[in-house]
Amino acid sequence: MINWFKFSAPSTFYPLAGKLVPVFWLLAAIFGAIGLYIGFFVAPTDAQQGEGYRIIFIHVPASWMSMFIYCVMAFWSLLGLTFGTRLSGMMTTALAPTGALFAFLSLWTGALWGKPMWGTWWVWDARLTSELILFFLYLGYMALHAAIDDPRRADRAGAVLSLVGVVNVPIIYFSVKWWNTLHQGASVSLTKSASMASTMLWGMLIMALAFWAYTLAVALMRARAIMLEREANTEWVKHLPDIRRAA
Amino acid sequence: MPQLFAMFAAYFAALNRDLLLVMRRKTEVLTALFFFVIVTTLLPLGIGPEPDLLRKIAPGAMWIAALLATLLGLQRLFAADHADGTLEQMALSPEPLSILVAGKITAHWLVCGLPLVLLAPVIGLQFDLPTDAIGILMLSLLIGTPLLSLIGAIGAALTLGARGSALLVSLLVLPLYVPTLIFGAGAVESYITGLGAAGHLSLLGALLVLAIAFSPWATTAALRISLE
Amino acid sequence: MQWQSLSDFLAMGGYGLYVWGSFGVCAVTMLAEPLLVRHRRRQALRDIQQSQDI
């Protein structure tokens, strides 16, 4: 049986993450290339939306990732609060900016899709609105973490916040949806294109894989940076081969 | 059985203490209340006096004013007790900390939430709301404002001892207030449009039950982290 | 293949601004983020280096 807790020590995780980062960059590049090829050259022109629909090949995967990353953060938080591992707080902190980036990209591409399709940059649709709230939750997590000086305390406070947030996200989504049906004037259905071509679905799935690999690569890189910053005075950091090379 | 009694005693002791402290400094109660009145008075001045328009925005405007007014009192919920060490004494006391926290949250609602419910009819008249709609508004505020105190307490506990905590609380807590705002203001709106408020009010009630079960526990966890 | 020429591809059937606006911002931010993180790690290494030399 593998001792998983062994990997949760920064001294063993740091070199492991260093080996994994290039692997995930490679995966991100391969999946990204395939996904973009499908998105631009294989997927046919949409009958109603013309070429403008090609935005969904990044819009939908970015939205998926923004929600997925928040769930992963909550998972690490739960792990951190129950077992008190140092690594889980670092991983949560390392994931948050990337999650916020995907939430932002989802909103940005959504606006650029909405303008030609619906004639407006923004509609108070349930999905768009909850994505915006999710973006605020990411910002709140990062602001709270940055405002507490002691990193261990910041990790634990952030963990409680992300768990409270993950309970709230579905409630927020359904409340906004409920609100949307009450104000029927503003509602625009996104699900009309239910007969989505399977090439489109494949393109989105592969792009989602590319974003997933990207997220892992960046989060591991950031986790390594955080480890160095926090553990600057420990023995294992002093004996890192990286130190010599940086000079 | 005596254990249960001790827990109730601890709850009321915490509640009593906070209410007493507030009574010594009455301005704090009045600040939130005054803020609520001023914001709802300024809104028509910014938007225009057409009664139709005002009637339409009244539920949302009053609910948003209520959200902001409860935010005002949040930083004070634990800050003073944290500064003078009372909070640490509470954490060490034999009674569960969550019971004491529940008492403090109740005190916050009695001071910052309940007055808004009682004041709502007066503001409602300013917005030309019909009498029965004012009743629904009061009911929605009565269920919704405890929810605001319960959710806000988590944010107040998390930001305890953080830099710039006053601003931070609003950034953390306001997004979590979205469902309360939607169901609270929506209850009045759907009542006015003839759809009935029962659905919204029961959902608000369900959220309140969820928050009563979850919030004191999460707040206590956050307080223990701040006290480390 | 539905594109006759490069300009046809760039025009995106009249949606060029929106499509390239989305993909462009996506590409820029996803290139900038790793660079910033790499800079952060190098900075941390340099700080440790300096504190050791002293």
CA gyration radius of chain B, whole angstroms: 18 Å
Q: What is the total number of structural domains of chain A?
A: 1
Instruction: Give the SSE order of chain A as H and E letters.
Output: HHHHHHHHH
User: How many DSSP H or I helices of chain B?
Assistant: 9
Task: Report the biggest beta sheet of chain B as strand number plus sense, adding barrel if it closes.
Answer: none
Overall 3D geometry of chain B? globular
Count of strand segments of chain B:
0
Which regions of chain B have little confidence, pLDDT < 50, spanning 5+ residues?
none
Q: Which structural class is indicated by helix and strand composition of chain A?
A: mainly alpha
SSE order of chain B, one letter for each helix or strand:
HHHHHHHHH
Q: Helical amount among residues of chain B, as a percent range? A: over 70%
Radius of gyration of chain A: 20 Å
The number of helical segments of chain A is 9
Mean pLDDT rating of chain A = 85
Low-confidence stretches of chain A: 185-192
Considering DSSP H and I runs of 4 or more, what fraction of the residues of chain A is helical?
over 70%
Mean pLDDT across the residues of chain B is: 88
Could you explain how this protein is built, in words?
The complex is a heterotrimer of chains A (247), B (228) and C (54). With 247 residues, chain A is an all-alpha fold. Chain A has helices at 4-7, 10-42, 56-83, 86-118, 126-147, 151-182, 198-230, 235-238, 241-246. Chain A has one domain (33-42, 54-184, 196-231). Chain C contains 2 helices and no strands. Chain C has helices spanning 6-11, 16-53. The longest helix of chain C has 38 residues, at 16-53. Chains in contact: A-B, A-C. Chain A binds chain C through residues 40-41, 44-45, 50-52, 54-55, 58-59, 62, 97-98, 101, 104-105, 108-109, 112-113, 115-116, 214, 217-218, 221-222, 224-225, 228-229, 232, 237-238, 242-243, 246-247, and chain C through 1-3, 9, 12-15, 18-19, 21-23, 25-26, 29-30, 33-34, 37-38, 40-42, 44-49, 51-52.
